[in-house]
User: Which sequence fits this backbone?
């Protein structure tokens, strides 16, 4: 799906997503990542939901985001409360959704000027 959104220059926006990729500002990525209006971390996470660890969520809690979107791949899956503990302890709001929904929601919140990050699992297209 191709997405169009008018954001100020220098703001990261999801411009497309599909099986096995997400495009940020027109650049395609095929590995899981974290995106924020002024952040692009391509070293976050794993290629599968089941591979996530509490350390992955602790890394998300270190960001100054008010809301953290967690895209769990092609379908919505919920991490255990123990895995979410770093976000809870840091008093970060979070939402769990499939990655396509996280892409759309991120763009809306970023366009509103919210302090948002989206951690998105990009599963292999194979």
Assistant:
């Amino acid at each position: 799906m191709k997405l169009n959104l008018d954001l100020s220059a220098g703001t990261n926006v999801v411009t497309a997503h599909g099986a096995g990729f997400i495009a940020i500002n027109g650049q395609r990525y095929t590995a899981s990542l974290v995106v924020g209006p002024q952040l692009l971390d391509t070293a976050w996470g794993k290629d599968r939901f089941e591979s996530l660890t509490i350390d992955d969520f602790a890394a998300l809690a270190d960001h100054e985001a008010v809301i953290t979107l967690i895209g769990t791949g092609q379908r919505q899956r919920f991490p255990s409360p123990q895995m979410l503990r770093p976000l809870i302890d840091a008093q970060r709001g979070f939402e769990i959704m499939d990655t396509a929904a996280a892409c759309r929601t991120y763009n809306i919140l970023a366009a509103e000027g919210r302090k948002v990050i989206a951690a998105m699992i990009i599963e292999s297209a194979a």
Remarks:
- The domain at 14-120 is CATH 3.40.1230.10 (Hypothetical Protein Mth938; Chain: A,).
